[in-house]
Amino acid sequence: MKLESGKYSIQGLAIDGICKQFGTPLYLYDAGKITSQVDNLRKAFDGAELKIKYAMKALTNISILKLLGKQGVGVDAVSINEAKLAIRAGIQAADINFTPSGVDFSEIKEGVALGLNVNLDNLPILEKFGKEYGSKYPCGIRLNPHIMAGGNIKISTGHVNSKFGISIQQLDQIKAIITKYNIVLQGLHIHTGSEIIETDVFMQMSDIFFGMAKDFKGLKFIDFGGGFKVAYKKDDKITDLPAIGSRLSEKFKAFEKETGRHLQLWIEPGKYLVSEAGYLVATTNVVKETPTLTFAGVDTGLNHLVRPMMYNSYHEIVNISNPGGPVKTYTIVGNICETDTLGSDRELNEVREGDLLVLKNAGAYGYSMASNYNSRFRPAEVLVIDGKALLIRERDTLEDILRGQKDVID
Q1: What is the pTM of this model?
Q2: Which of these is catalytic: 337, 398, 408, 409?
Q3: pLDDT by residue (tens digit) across 280-290?
Q4: Lower Cβ count inside 10 Å, N or C end of the chain?
């Protein structure tokens, strides 16, 4: 998003013009930013055989999946329906890493039937998999490394009390099950959380991986998950990807030199690829002054962007309708019958009724976590690609809210 000649634009298209065409609230995505993030990852990890698996739970729109697929990116799916969406988008089953948690074994069997890379995260499922498939179908395992990392406890997934993965302290049990059923283990996977800025976290993971890799001769890949931090504010500390890429590449080369075995390096970025590419645009309904605060009430809320309430996340807010106005302090709130504060004590150019406010970093876990709470419609989604604004999801209607409901009262 750029400010040029008094107008905010994406790829040369004025955002206010896009909103006149499609209305608000509106999710708006910049395809150019997504593809540039893919390029950044490849440059950072150019010393290894890298496979990027987009963590599609961040944003599942089929047009976004197709855009990434055209860049040679696979996906990380955490439900069978995510995997089916990816296949609908043209992603090959062999490029889909399927890592569900706490699911019934029938979902694992469906993943096998589709030809996915199945990744198992608990011992009972590993046992069932061995009984069902033996050496006939390979699998990976998700490990819990007992590493605390990430920006919020709700998105830290590799600590000792996390539900995710098989504890590294249960390595002997893993080996026993694999030996018992002659399971073909093709991959080791760890995902410790989101918004990881410590390079050493990835080095700790690599130590665990390469220590185990010597025991499993059939391995094809090691998957470090995602969690790369992007900037939400000016001067935010972000993940040093070139440093991680360089150090991990050296580790892979050293392992190959020592053992004569070549392994692929997999990563599963979600937020990194789409967060900064996405914007939630809202219209100001009311400016409400109280003895203590000035509220700017907008036509969106926690039903469209739950992250500020769920994770205390920060999203920069910009008044794109009045970029030259005097700066005042506002608390930006939604139109939901809950306390849905999108931003407290924000210094913005003077906000007036009808002004468009843009919430940045809304591409990841925005629309994908949206709901019809208060029976309000979910927004439309628009992708700006090659200088054109294209509708990639229609705004909900009342019929969408009623779909599936049954009127059984006479």
Answers
A1: 0.93
A2: 337
A3: 999 999 999 99
A4: C
